[in-house]
Amino acid sequence: MTDPKTLADKLRSGQPVITGWSMLAAPIVAELFARSGYEAVTLDLQHGMHDFKSASDGFAALVLGGAHRIARIPVGGNATASRLADMGAEMPDWLQ
C-alpha cells in the first residue's frame, strides 16, 4: 500500500495523525509547528485567538511548512467552516 497523501486518506486508512494545536493568531507559530514535524496543525478559532483572517494566513504558512490544515470553529460557525474550507482547510470525506 502506498503512503496516503491527503488527510482524508490517512484518516480513512486508520493511520494516526498527530496535530499541533495553535491558539496564537500568528502565522509563524503555525508554520513552526509544521516545520517541527507535526503532520497536521489545528488552528483554534473557538477558544484560541484565531479569527478568519489569521486562519487564512495560517493556512498559507502551513502550506509552506508542509502540514495538513485543520480548523476548530466556534459552535454554530457553519458559515465560518464553509469559508475556511474555501481557504484550504482539509476535512474527512464524511464531513463534505
From TrEMBL:
One Gene Ontology CC term in the entry: cytoplasm
GO molecular function ontology, one term from the record: aldehyde-lyase activity
Region forming the signal peptide: none
Protein name: 2,4-dihydroxyhept-2-ene-1,7-dioic acid aldolase
Species: Roseibium alexandrii (strain DSM 17067 / NCIMB 14079 / DFL-11)
Lineage of source species: Bacteria, Pseudomonadati, Pseudomonadota, Alphaproteobacteria, Hyphomicrobiales
